Amino acid sequence: MQNEAIYLWFARPDDFTDREIFEGASALLSDSERSRMRIFKFEASQREYLAAHFLVRTALAHQESTPPQDWRFRTNEYGRPSVDPACGLFFSLSRRRGLVACLIAHEHEVGLDLESTERAAQIIDIAPRVFSPKERAQLDSMTAPDKSDHAVSLWTLKEAYCKARGLGFSLPLQKLSFLGCPPGDVRLELDPSIGDSPERWRFCLLDRDGHRIALMVERLRPPRLEVRVLQPFQAPSLLPENPLPTWFPLA
Predict the structure, then answer these.
(1) What is the pLDDT of residues 85-111, one digit of tens each?
(2) Domain interval for residue 207
(3) CATH, residue 89
(4) How deeply is 131 buried, as exposed, middle or buried, from its count of CB atoms within 10 A (0-12, 13-18, 19+)?
(5) What's the total number of domains in the chain?
(6) Phi and psi, residue 149, nearest 5°
(7) Distance CA 26, CA 20 (A)
(8) Smallest Cα–Cα separation from 105: which of 78, 75, 82, 85?
(9) Residue 226: strand pairing partners
(10) I need a surface site. Which of 47, 82, 91, 160 has the fewest CB within 10 A?
(11) Is the pLDDT of residue 24 over 80?
């Protein structure tokens, strides 16, 4: 694996509708993962969970020689999963009803979040609780369509950062700000209480299948991104970087 690259993988829960595929993918999960999957009442939610955990196992196996079913994981006190035992691979996972994604890097912390763009109104409703004063001022200066689009970007970026830190929503969301708006520059500002330096992070935004996707990587220079789409029990498709992602901050 080339250490300068990071790897973004996608899968679709609907590709696991067939019963034979569903059972075959389930066999690669751990006993505890299968038990958690069965807790979900609806099959659509089970497929979403299955697609996500099948994806991360397959994506990690693509980087190392360990078979998908042999990967083991642990979670920290904030619920962040990591490989157990550590092997130098870091990953972040995000799932929604129509799409799941996994981001992998070697020796670099990463964070990933995806959100349906249709949830913009719900995100705006909770803006006073999750966005900083500077972020809210920027949103209030925008027209309605731009405001909705930017709110989704802000939410995914903030979640990706929280995941990359491994602290989840224990971080005070109103004390971290993503300021600016694509295609112009976007910068990260952190209150001193956050205990981090914005300069150590690079981030970008992508769109796929009606979802906004935020990637966060602990890296001083923009990384090379490889994107793959996985269908169960088929060779993954490598997608061209077209268009190339814009990594922020620009300078």
Answers:
(1) 999 999 999 999 899 999 999 999 999
(2) 5-239
(3) 3.90.470.20
(4) buried
(5) 1
(6) -65, -45
(7) 10
(8) 82
(9) 7
(10) 82
(11) yes
